[in-house]
Amino acid sequence: MAGAFEPAGEMLFLQNSNRSWIGKMSDTATLSAKFQISIPKQVRDGQGWQAGQEFVFIPKGKGVLVMPVPERGRLRGIARGADIAGHRDRSDRF
Fold first, then answer.
1. pTM score, whole prediction
2. pLDDT at residue number 7
3. Which of 27, 54, 55, 88 would disulfide-bridge 40, Cβ 3.0–4.6 Å?
4. SS3 of residue 59 by DSSP
5. If we measure between CA atoms, which residue out of 24, 52, 26, 54 comes closest to residue 40?
6. Mind listing the pLDDT tens digit for each residue in 42-85?
7. CB–CB of 9/25 below 8 Å?
């Protein structure tokens, strides 16, 4: 069954529609009336997230992937040495 939960000790595991286990759910949060969610401390500390940090929300099926937006300085040089030969522009796509 898609979205079925199975208890395993103090953690719950989410079952995907193809009956594979896609992850564990050990911390939950509730959406407030102002559409805000507090990220559990264990998750914040584990990821090293800080107050004021910017995040991007990426829709994934019936859920959402939350990723921190990298600082501009950390992206500097990421494509250095990339071979642009054969690079396709949008105009030559089907």
1. 0.52
2. 46
3. 27
4. strand
5. 26
6. 888 888 999 999 999 999 998 899 999 988 888 788 878 888 77
7. no
